[in-house]
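Let's do one together. I've listed all components of the complex below, 1460 residues spread over two lines.
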Amino acid sequence: MIPWYFWLVPLAAIFVLYMATKFFRMMKAEPAGTDRMIEIAAYVRKGAIAYLKQQYGVVAVVFVLISIFLWLLAYKFHLQNEWLPFAFWTAGICSGLAGFIGMQTATQASSRAAFAASKSLNHGLRIAFRSGAVVGLAVVGLALLDYSFWFLVLNFFEKDMPFPNDRMIVITGTMLTFAIGASLQALFARVGGGIFTKAADVGADLVGKIEKGIPEDDPRNPATIADNVGDNVGDVAGMGADLYESYSGAILAAAALGATAFARHDNSLQMKAILAPILMGAMGAILSIVGILVVKTKEEATSRALLKSLGNGVKLSGLCILLAALFVLAILGMPNIWGIWGALAVGLISGEVIGKTSEYYTSQAYTPTRCVARQSQTGPATVIIGGIGLGMISTAVPVLAVVVGTLLAFSLAQGFGGEKDILMGLYGVSIAAVGMLSTLGITMATDAYGPIADNAGGNAEMSGLDAEVRKRTDALDALGNTTAATGKGLAIGSAALTALALLASYISAIKGTMVSVGDEFVVVNGNNIPVTALTLNDIIDYYQIHLLNPKVLMGLFVGAMLSFLFCGLSINAVGRAAAKMVEEVRRQFREIVGIMDNTAVPDYAQCVKISTFAAQCEMLMPSAIAIISPIIVGVLLGVSGVVGLMGGALSSGFVLAIFMANSGGSWDNAKKYIEEGAMGGKGSDAHKAAVIGDTVGDPFKDTAGPSLNILIKLMSIVSLVVVGITVKFS
Amino acid sequence: MIPWYFWLVPLAAIFVLYMATKFFRMMKAEPAGTDRMIEIAAYVRKGAIAYLKQQYGVVAVVFVLISIFLWLLAYKFHLQNEWLPFAFWTAGICSGLAGFIGMQTATQASSRAAFAASKSLNHGLRIAFRSGAVVGLAVVGLALLDYSFWFLVLNFFEKDMPFPNDRMIVITGTMLTFAIGASLQALFARVGGGIFTKAADVGADLVGKIEKGIPEDDPRNPATIADNVGDNVGDVAGMGADLYESYSGAILAAAALGATAFARHDNSLQMKAILAPILMGAMGAILSIVGILVVKTKEEATSRALLKSLGNGVKLSGLCILLAALFVLAILGMPNIWGIWGALAVGLISGEVIGKTSEYYTSQAYTPTRCVARQSQTGPATVIIGGIGLGMISTAVPVLAVVVGTLLAFSLAQGFGGEKDILMGLYGVSIAAVGMLSTLGITMATDAYGPIADNAGGNAEMSGLDAEVRKRTDALDALGNTTAATGKGLAIGSAALTALALLASYISAIKGTMVSVGDEFVVVNGNNIPVTALTLNDIIDYYQIHLLNPKVLMGLFVGAMLSFLFCGLSINAVGRAAAKMVEEVRRQFREIVGIMDNTAVPDYAQCVKISTFAAQCEMLMPSAIAIISPIIVGVLLGVSGVVGLMGGALSSGFVLAIFMANSGGSWDNAKKYIEEGAMGGKGSDAHKAAVIGDTVGDPFKDTAGPSLNILIKLMSIVSLVVVGITVKFS
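Okay, and this is what the predicted structure of the assembly comes out as:
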């Protein structure tokens, strides 16, 4: 039943995880620095672990509640698969584990990277990059392992289907719903982590830098440890969970669409269509390691040359993946091999275009961000107007890249099924999403080293290392901004493609649901059709999923509104949490005598606690929106309303996410550009204006913006999970 | 052929225009103030007229170019009605005329209102309000006159149709395309006026207030006249054209849908369905006058009581309109009378909810804006984060009001046609849009007095009147902020409803186009159907206008992106234009010796010229997007892509517009709240932070935000006009 080539997937997963531990051990073998450095790192690690413990506790409660709901849905109302209440836990746990591993690695790496940077820039970079690779490989490896496990379990237990093709549709469809665990975990990690890190950051800056006039990362600042913890829980653990979710969503959606699109074909062909995206993902994971190992740096290279070398590693991995994918497809003997391969290539290239666009708009090496920096000369208002204008304009190219990519992938894959086969085309789109994320192992390595370098800088500052060391870690951190923008671009670009595939899966799932709620015949276009014989077009007609149906249009409105509401709530949450942090930091300076002259140690743990508590409280409300709204809309507006909701959240959320990420990135780098000496440099009025822009951008780019891609997919998957309620009660 | 009750419309129009001239003459009869006041007012008037001249010149060139395009479309390719190349001029001219009348009135009224305010607050308010009424009535009267004219012309000339019902579909459909003139004019007026006013405002403030430390509206500031001109061209002429467009769009779309929805019914019933919305509009115009006349104020009333009195006038008008509409429908003997009346009432109430929500989020009397004001204590960054969060959250209620309103209006009206009659339901939605705008005559009067009061304040300041007078005009101006938010809410709310109706008109127009491009039979769901027998659902099926068609989805993406791109371009335009203004003002202070000690007069005209020129250059690019994108999308993605485009621009644009209007309004009033003494009052650090928030909000609420509703409709109408190209070439 299980074809031999399936076993390549768990093998690849184990190999990838083995490599991750190897890189981890290599990093651990490096010297951990002076006693003071080890002490500082321990503070940060303790804070981060305390946060994650708290976070996972809250998430566990939410998971238990949702388990109960899913249990009722499955066992009481028979509207969902009976594995779901348990299976979504493994996805959640793997995603959480990826975040935890990332955070463990990052907090171990920071003092080592700082110590290595005291030898040379390259030493520091290598440690940070190798540690980043641990995160990337853990994400990819755990995801592949989780699917392999459930694929085997479901194949073993789900046997009572008359036709093997229907069976595979049920198995892949069920596996797709499991992704709700990963999405939920990711949303909490991104929103909670985003609130934590920005509350600590803003709080530390407003009191420490502005009121007390002490430098960034000064150990006298009570919020400085919280700030460094924030980098780990937001930018490492949050990003790890986020990309785990993106990767899972893309591959599982492609598998589910493969099953549906090839349902009318031979069973062994259907199996190939299902496993092809998973195999290509596994291949990508292994070839990412090739890229990681190939990256070599000359001892005297400049930091820009290093960045280029990283970029070459990614490009090499991408090229290898393209070749290997062709090989995989040929071995499988897939039909329309060039079409499917083309879709994969289109995805990879669109991802590259989105990443390059982010770089163009957010890097101080190009005109747009320099223009924002120039506007700081006329004050904070013009900087902010300029950054918002830039962010809005920057949405054009990524949207067009996704539009062109989708249409190309759709037509290339459709070639096989005949012109009207929508599912075959959408299978191509989902393959494009897999292609976009296929280099994840290495792109995430280049991403994750940013926050590690940032923390290394904090460690160097607090341990009183040479100013030269701090300068080197700052240089590494600045490069990290560019690679982080690329990572966010991939996450949101792949979200757009994956969400399209989820939309298709949703409509496909309706048929199965109609059968299970007891519908036997429905009238479509005047004909009485048995439910089991309904085509995709029949379902579209029956539920009037067209744009003149006011329910669809109203769903669009609500979806668009929800992405704004979600952003507004999480932005305000950062504001509120930051205000609490400001109060606490002021209190400590006032009440703990001797902080400023180094005779007393501030209470770092209290600041971590406040940020942790605020993040936990504030993350619930925006997350609740994502979970509850598809249920409410489903009951009130029915299937057509839900489809509209998904379309509205997808289109608006996608554009909004790019806008927020690029505005925020641009303000950050405009500030850095001025700090490098432009417009009067550090301390000038222009710099002060740019700092204000950067502070406004913080919740844009690190809280609301990167959560939107998860929101879009979580809403889609929740819709998919509750499709039974929607069909039955509306 | 023409039923007797039609004649009520031009009669009402003439009566309304007569009343407008009466109010104008009443205002003119008031004393114009001291010589200095007359001199200042003349400067402003000259500047405003110079701007409008220039603006209309540019618009005329664009109109000529579009005429040529439309002429080719109609006469060369036979893809549009032959009246269109000429008829769209009258709409454009009427809309421009409404703006011109508004501006003439406002510039005449400012010195009179200032002079009257030196007697009492109420005197000032009465002049400002009556002058505002001139604008409101001119808009409504001219619009009704324009439709009456074309209804008669088309009825007289378009006779060669075999069936009277088809004939009315052609006539109303043609009239709807004429609205492109009004939409174009409005977009230019809003974008151009918005850029002008904000460039002048920001320029005057940055150099005058901040660099030179002279107060607002000081005659020594070279940009002060330009700033006052800006209020007239942006907030009066721009708003006049905007609401002319909204009013036209709503009524013409309702008439066109009436013709299509009732096509299968008796011809006289169809005629009633067409004329009912126009008649209700005419009734609303007359009853607005009742409201205007009833507003009476006690001599010693507080400004808040005056606002309440204005609100009562609007409510009275609304109630009268509801009663009168029922009467009209009964006289006409419309079927489903309660359903149609209910749709009208739903529209009126939704409009009220949207207005109240804007008031709640933007007025300093309520918690949200006070919260933003409080955030100014921690600096500009937190004010801006707070305002953005507030604006995003504030989108929820208006969207839900429109969603509930649409679904209610849809179901109420659908009652008559049977459950599946989409067109009948959409007719109800378009009636709701008419209902929302039915009190326009009076709501616009309450709107337009804001900028008049603002100008009166400028005049008082520059003529050296008592500080007491300035305080009174400031009080009037502050009230105006609230009423302006209501006006913007109505414009965007009605745009959402009207755009739905336009979507339906678009799909209806496809059938006619298919006939004219020579299609005879098409295959729908496997059946060969003659084009003339196609139903709405057939067309939806044939062009696959459903949400799984990737072309529809990609259209959604592009539509959502275009609304962001449009905002980004216009926000950046303000930034660039303001920078030019800053340079010029600095130059004058440097080169013209004696400005500061009042021995030399600054060159006001040069500043007006710079703002004018910048506005003209910068308004072309965003406007071009609205015109060209539906054509490109139509050719590349076909009918389904265009429908997606309309849906995407509508949903995202609607939410984005509310966000920008409310964020901007809230920052403005948070500043005012602090100036009233909160958080340390004028001159405190909190005040400085709030001023920065207000400056960021300026292009939000006065340039990009209010243009979005026009963008949405213009894109829809352009799509409708070029439907022939889309059907033929895609």
